[in-house]
Amino acid sequence: MTQDQEKTVLDLVTNPPLGSDLAKAKEFGIDLTLFIATLRRTPTERARSLSEGARIFQVAKQIQRK
Amino acid sequence: MKLEETIRILYDADVEFVVIGGAAMGLQGSAYLTKDIDFCYARTPANIERLANALQPFHPVLRGAPADLPFRFDAKTIAQGLNFTLSTDLGDLDFLGEVSGLGSFQEVLAESDVRTVGVVDCRVLSLEGLIKSKIAAGRPRDLYVLPELRGLSQVKKKAGVE
Lengths: 66, 162
Description:
The complex is a heterodimer.
Chain A: H1 3-14, H2 21-28, H3 34-40, H4 43-65
Chain B: H1 3-12, E1 17-20, H2 21-27, E2 36-41, H3 45-55, E3 61-62, H4 75-80, E4 84-88, E5 91-96, E6 98-99, E7 103-104, H5 105-110, E8 112-117, E9 120-125, H6 127-137, H7 140-144, H8 146-159
Parallel strand pairs in B: 1-9, 2-5
Antiparallel strand pairs in B: 1-2, 3-4, 4-5, 6-7, 8-9
């Protein structure tokens, strides 16, 4: 993301326009600030993050079984 | 789950595929986590053969099936079926011949974006495609992710982010 894009994302997630899909997502309980972090990442970094998340999920599941 | 590696393996084997489901959501910027990878694959005989050959070294078995159930993920099996939920050495992989709300591979391909994952340009279902498929699937867990997908779609369009 460029600095301008990041500023736009920050503005949108901190002040979602009334009645917008973003406002509805926030009302639903979505933490919109997560978009700042996820959109900063490249698709490759997102892929690695997904794999790491799945690995942690697997470890937690194994611990729960013990 | 080895997303980057799995995409690379399928790409290197010339398999025609689109990443769909939770992995596509994550690649498009959602914070959603998934433990399996879903793909839509082309059902041409040549692609089916390539898919079977690509996965063969990774010991695919039907997920959740009894260990003694005879199963070979070969071209004949794929041609006779449509959707496969597999456990492999790469993790849990699902291969779908069709996606609800979208249709077969060509329709899914038309709703996809190119994303660079590692050194590979691959096809990933677009946010609009994901929203359509989630609405069509209609299960509570599909509908639950719609607010995030719609919000993400709006922020990406307004900010011009991929």
